[in-house]
Specification:
The protein is α+β, with helices and mostly antiparallel strands. The chain has 33 helices and 26 strands. The strands form six sheets. Strands 5, 6, 7, 8, 9, 10, 11, 12 and 13 form a nine-stranded antiparallel sheet that branches. Strand 17 and strand 18 form a beta hairpin. Helix 3 packs parallel to helix 6, helix 15 packs across helix 18 and helix 16 runs antiparallel to helix 18.
Length: 1023
């Protein structure tokens, strides 16, 4: 017996037989009989095969439906409105992101690299300014497509990448299609990801994070070099896209999500840690090189900007107060979008920045999954997302927790404001946890039973957050104004709690429905359970969208807000102002500026071309709306706060003392609320004295009257004046005995500039010490339409007199005090009233400096030196012809920022010379030698060249990475093809070659299959 067995083994080695082909019986034909099996075993195998085939078909159909939904939702949200003539570009998108991308497209079309923006900040970096996303590949479509189509395409691409990318990641975790789809929808179409569409660069950068996660996951599973190279390339490209999107905050969020997840996968791959770490490091290096074209110039620009110094006030800006975390449970806690007449956001921030609601069930999932933890068991895959979600909350709290002492020192992260946007980390984590929990709760047992029976512990844990959501709504309804006051809302605005209470009911009902579903859902059949879950998620997210995202109808106004004050001042002007037109259409040369920090102009700001919208409608501005601006320029003009506070602002001192003249200003637009304020009595008993948005500045409205001099005031718009009262008194100096006061004369300035003198009066008599204060009042029968006021001191008295704040009565009965904060600045000789543009008064600069001018060198004179523009726009000449007998300093009215140089080419011949461009005030200056020549300016932004070289190296690295994987694949195929004894096709299994009907064994990971020859070895532990 032993001899026979030994002979059999020897024969098997010497004469190998083809392997058995179980499906066709081919092995029997080759001399090996199939094993005998009873009919019952064959039947069981058949049923198992049919069941597996049915599950596979169900998954495939589920994938098709899920991908269809994820593809169609962005079309409904963005493409459909654009097709109907209403493109989606809310807030900052219309003011900043869209115009900047249009400019990038224009420059690319003309063959220029988009590195400089001449239209805002008197000239500023474009690529290094981050917000334009000039290096982001999807921005380049603006060069070939109409602007609206290109913008809508970018929105669609962002939503598709975020939604489908997260779906692919969840399916790669071997979750079922339905849970994966609900998780993807909760992330891509709800919470901060949807609310922050107003900040396109942020969502564009964050949308690539799920793709990064997919790359890390697949790298940790891949067993072949070919697969590793491909997933490494995907991780590198996705990470580079986040860098190129032009939003530093997105880079931070990616680090705090992909970083912990990468460490988690590294810890769970004990046998592959060095290999995985190496491939991830390669991906990081390639991504950093590709993104350097944005990152290096951007960091250099930040170092020169108003945000160069890291401070706590900057870091803390936008941090969630601890009690505001309740908005994660109740999105309308502080007011909503104003839909259907509901109160708008009542807090001291804005709704976009605090919105992070991804639904009730994600919180249920986060709690219920924790109930599954058991001691002495391997940690589940989803646990890392509980940690990531907690990290996001800590980051969003910013300065509200002691952790800021450490976080503020993290490079790049610590120098940014608006920590609230880090809540995107938590939103993504909650969406992933929702998918993991639903996959368990809606899944099947391995035995094929109808559904999973959850433990009481899991149900209790899951009910807690659902009850918390419902309870938050109930407390908000019952406590009302008290709740709002506890959240920091002012007492006046907290009085709107009555209008807000009905909008808490949807969350109360949804929270109650979640309680019922979690506690009793295990008793419902699997199919009905799925329907209930889909319905609850859909109702929850639609309710959130309507109340917190969409502006369906105007919301109720706040008592005492801007609208109340504006109505009193505007009532003095009759008729109402017309529609605003772009400033560029007014025909005023030079750069323009807008002063409207309270945004009184509202939607009209966009019409006049408020920066950065002027890049689309035309005109150059000495302001901008981008996040950073050169620090010296910001300090000199006051055009940007360190923390980004204030839109359309300027230093009032710079407006009045002529500091802006060197920038070749053309016009300054402002609304009358900054020039006149509501008086002590108004029409129809309106109390305009309660104005808080536009405080009076008596110093700006007061003047000193000298003999023979004229003091001026401006109304900022035409007013039908019926009476004027001007307080006149002593300046505080002592008059000599017998001195008399001056006679003052009052005139009204007509819209055309002419002055109509309406009356004169004798000033008060001197008493030898101080003048007694009195008021000079004139009445105009029938009224005079005027835009300003002049008071002239007549006579030759030796004393200066003090004119207090004039009080003007309009024909409509409105009383106005001429003491707005801009009154002194715009009444100076540097400005004159030039008309109206919608609600804005247009003030024209009277003595701006030309775009090019000459200044003598130290110790020399100009003589007959001249300068003349040769090429380039009028405001931004790129070359000029200069002639000077003794040399000169050429001053150009562009902002002096790093990166500028100049070339001097003598007209008589000779080698060109490189000249330094230096700062003169806040503009550029170049010293040219004596003689006649052409001066040409060049801009090469700091870090641009090195970034381009690094990006080129990164691109080569990416190509090499893909080529290496392809070459490795070909080598593997050639090895297989050389197996002796058969005609084996490249890449085919030897088993399949010898058994034509055989199917290679496959290992499933995340719904996808990989051929592994005849061996089955899962690439990843399923737990």
């Amino acid at each position: 017996m032993e001899f026979q067995e030994s002979d059999a083994r020897m024969a098997a080695v010497a004469f190998p037989v083809p392997p058995r082909c179980a499906t066709t019986g081919a092995g029997h034909e080759g001399g090996v009989a199939p094993p005998r099996a009873g009919w019952w075993r064959a039947g069981w195998r058949g049923r198992s095969a049919r069941r597996r085939s049915g599950d596979s078909a169900r998954r495939r159909s589920g994938d098709v439906v899920a991908l269809g939904v994820l593809a169609c939702l962005p079309l409904l949200a963005y493409a459909l409105p654009a097709a109907l003539g209403h493109p989606v570009w809310p807030g900052d998108d219309a003011t900043q992101n869209f115009p900047l991308r249009v400019l990038v497209g224009q420059q690319l079309r003309t063959g220029h690299l988009p590195i400089y923006d001449p239209g805002i900040w008197s000239g500023t970096p474009l690529l290094a300014g981050w917000n334009a996303g000039a290096a982001y590949p999807f921005t380049w479509v603006f060069a070939v497509l109409p602007a609206t189509i290109a913008w809508t395409g970018n929105l669609l691409a962002t939503s598709w990448v975020a939604g489908i990318g997260l779906y692919a990641f969840l399916r790669a975790n071997r979750l079922e299609p339905l849970p994966s789809a609900l998780g993807a929808v909760s992330f891509a179409f709800a919470g901060a990801m949807d609310a922050q569409v107003v900040h396109f660069g942020l969502v564009a950068g964050v949308s690539w994070i799920p793709v990064q996660l997919l790359g890390v996951l697949r790298l940790s599973e891949a067993a072949e070099t070919r697969s590793r190279t491909r997933w490494c390339a995907l991780l590198a490209v996705a990470s580079a896209m986040t860098l190129l999107a032009g939003e530093p905050r997105a880079i931070d969020i990616a680090l705090f999500v992909t970083g912990p997840y990468g460490l988690w996968r590294l810890a769970r791959s004990p046998g592959r840690r060095p290999v995985l770490a190496g491939w991830v490091a390669i991906a990081v290096v390639v991504a950093g090189a590709l993104g350097a074209v944005q990152l290096l110039p951007g960091l250099r620009a930040v170092a020169d900007s108003q945000r160069a110094a890291t401070t706590f006030s900057l870091y803390d800006g936008g941090s969630y107060p601890l009690n505001w975390l309740l908005v994660l449970f109740e999105p309308n806690l502080l007011g909503g979008s104003g839909s259907f007449g509901a109160p708008s956001f009542l807090g001291n921030y804005n709704l976009t920045e605090v919105t992070a609601y991804v639904g009730v069930l994600p919180w249920v999932a986060a709690a219920a999954l924790l109930a599954q933890l058991r001691r002495h068991r391997r940690l589940p895959e989803w646990l890392v997302w509980e940690v990531v979600g907690a990290i996001g909350i800590v980051l969003a709290l910013g300065g509200s927790t002691p952790a800021w002492h450490v976080l503020i020192h993290i490079p790049l992260f610590g120098s940014q404001r608006l920590q609230n946007r880090n809540i995107l980390v938590t939103d993504l984590a909650l969406a992933v946890l929702l998918a993991f929990w639903l996959d368990h709760w809606l899944g099947k047992r391995r035995s094929g039973a109808a559904g999973v029976t959850t433990s009481p512990r899991e149900r209790w844990f899951g009910v807690v957050p659902a009850l918390a959501v419902a309870a938050t709504g109930v407390v908000s309804i019952t406590w009302g104004a008290g709740m709002l006051r506890w959240l920091g809302v002012s007492r006046a605005l907290a009085g709107q709690d009555g209008g807000l209470r009905p909008w808490f009911m949807p969350t109360v009902l949804i929270g109650a429905a979640a309680v019922v579903l979690v506690s009793l859902g295990h008793r419902v059949g699997l199919r009905r359970r799925r329907v209930l879950v889909v319905g609850l998620v859909a109702v929850d997210l639609v309710s959130f969208a309507v109340t917190s995202l969409l502006q369906v109808a105007p919301g109720s106004s706040r008592p005492g807000a801007t609208a109340t004050d504006t109505s009193v001042v505007a009532a003095a002007a009759d008729p109402s102002p017309g529609t605003a037109v772009p400033v560029s259409d007014l025909g005023i040369p030079g750069r323009f500026a807008i002063y409207d920090p309270a945004l009184v102009g509202g939607s009209q700001l966009r019409a006049v071309g408020a920066p950065d919208a002027n890049l689309v409608v035309g005109g150059s501005s000495l302001q901008g709306y981008s996040s950073i601006v050169n620090g010296a320029y910001a300090r000199a003009t006051g055009a940007h706060g360190v923390a980004g506070d204030g839109q359309d602002v300027l230093s009032i001192t710079a407006v009045g003392d002529g500091a802006l003249d060197q920038l070749d200003p053309g016009a300054l637009l402002t609304v009358p609320e900054y020039l006149v304020t509501a008086g002590s009595s108004g029409a129809s008993g309106s109390s305009a004295a309660a104005s808080t948005t536009f405080p009076a500045d008596p110093a700006a409205g007061s003047r000193v009257l000298s003999a023979g001099r004229t003091a001026r005031w401006s109304f900022g718009e035409p007013v039908d004046v019926t009476s004027v009262r001007v307080p006149v008194g002593a300046t505080g100096n002592t008059a000599p005995p017998g001195a008399t006061g001056n006679t003052v004369r009052i005139g009204l300035v007509r819209p055309g500039g002419a002055v109509t003198w309406v009356d004169s009066a004798r000033g008060p008599e001197s008493r030898g010490t101080r003048h007694a204060t009195t008021s000079v009042t004139v009445h105009v029968h029938g009224g005079i339409r005027a835009v300003g006021l002049e008071v002239r001191a007549l006579g030759t008295g030796p004393l200066d007199e003090h004119a207090g704040v004039p009080v003007v009565q309009s024909r409509s009965g409105v009383t106005l005090d001429v003491d707005g904060v801009l009154q002194a600045a715009l009444s100076s000789p540097q400005w004159r009233y030039g008309g109206q543009d919608g609600p804005f008064g247009v003030f024209v600069a009277t003595r701006p400096s030309p775009p090019l001018r000459l200044r003598p060198l130290r110790g020399r004179t100009l003589g007959r030196a001249t300068v003349r523009r040769l090429t380039g726009p009028e405001l931004v000449p790129s070359s000029a012809l200069v002639s000077s007998p003794r040399g000169a300093v050429v001053v150009r009215s562009d902002a002096a920022i790093a990166g500028w140089s100049a070339t001097w080419q003598p007209t008589g011949g000779g080698p060109p010379r490189i000249l330094a461009v230096y700062r003169s005030g806040i503009v550029q200056a170049v010293e040219v030698p004596a003689g006649r020549g052409v001066l040409t300016w060049h801009y090469d932004g700091p870090g641009v060249r090195s970034g381009e070289l690094a990006a080129g190296a990164g691109l080569l690295g990416l190509v090499a990475l893909l080529a290496a994987g392809r070459r490795r694949s070909r080598r593997s195929s050639s090895v297989v093809s050389e197996v002796p004894g058969g005609d084996v096709a490249a890449g085919a299994s030897p088993v399949a070659a010898r058994c034509p009907g055989a199917q290679p064994a496959r290992s499933m990971a995340g719904g996808r299959y990989r051929a592994l020859g005849t061996a089955r070895h899962p690439e990843r532990d399923p737990s």
